[in-house]
Amino acid sequence: MDLDLPQLPFPLRTYGPDGHWKYEDGFLSGWAGPRQDRFVPPTGESLDPAADAPRLLGAPEGDFQLIARVTVGFNGSFDAGVLYVHVGERAWAKLCLENSPTVPTVCTVVTRGHSDDCNSFTVDGSSVWLRVSRTGRAFAFHASRDGKHWTFVRLFTLGDEKETGAALVGFMAQSPMGEGCVVTYDHIEFRPEWPADLRDGS
């Protein structure tokens, strides 16, 4: 299924399990089913080929920032709403508002063969603003409690400039240990530029 959002200059396409994606009146919503997740454990286990989560992704060109406020209907541990970057089957990254395991937390995962896992800061309530940016081969993750002051979370790459320039970017929902959760995105915004300063809160 393809979906066009008026805020984005590129179409979105669904990947993975059916996320029942819907856009109406500025709100994008999706559903993660029971035990749906994307994670390749760094402890040596291989990824179960059936392990996947609903994604809605597109291919922006050049430098950009993708911004959204994410709200998660938390039910189980590690339920999350995600801004997601995909370069290859074992080269991808997640910026999450996650129930980790019982407290809403901004978390990140960068997968290069296997996944890492990092918690950044906790959030009061079930909503937070997330931002993913790209310039050249570099990606940056930021999060904000109010959509105005941004906290720098992570700077990384997933390959060379040719690979990252073809990255798919968008939205994901997950419920690794639970019976499913609804994720809603609003205040969606696209900026065709890299942030002027990663660490000054802008």
Describe this structure in words.
The protein has 202 residues and is mostly beta strands. It has one domain (2-176): Jelly Rolls (Sandwich). Helix content is 2%, strand content 51%. The chain has one helix and 16 strands. The protein has one helix spanning 161-165; strands at 2-3, 12-15, 22-24, 27-32, 55-58, 64-72, 80-88, 91-99, 104-112, 114-115, 118-122, 127-135, 138-144, 151-157, 168-174, 181-191. Strands 1, 2, 5, 7, 8, 9, 10, 11 and 15 form a nine-stranded antiparallel sheet that branches. Strands 3-4-16-6-12-13-14 form a seven-stranded antiparallel sheet, with no helix packed on it. The mean pLDDT is 95.
Compute the separation of the termini in Å. Answer: 35 Å
When the domains are counted, the total is 1
How many alpha or pi helices? 1
The fraction of residues assigned to DSSP E strands is over 45%
At CATH level 3, the topology is Jelly Rolls
Shape: globular
Helical residues, percent: under 10%
Structural class: mainly beta
CATH class reads Mainly Beta
Question: What's this model, at a glance?
Answer:
The chain is mostly beta strands.
Summary tags:
single chain; 202 residues; mainly beta; Jelly Rolls; 51% strand; DUF1349; Regulation of enolase 1
Show the helix and strand layout.
Blueprint: E1 2-3, E2 12-15, E3 22-24, E4 27-32, E5 55-58, E6 64-72, E7 80-88, E8 91-99, E9 104-112, E10 114-115, E11 118-122, E12 127-135, E13 138-144, E14 151-157, H1 161-165, E15 168-174, E16 181-191
Antiparallel strand pairs: 1-2, 2-5, 3-4, 4-16, 5-15, 6-12, 6-16, 7-8, 7-15, 8-9, 9-10, 9-11, 12-13, 13-14
InterPro entries: ConA-like_dom_sf, DUF1349, UCP022704
Protein name: Regulation of enolase 1
Pfam families: DUF1349 (PF07081)
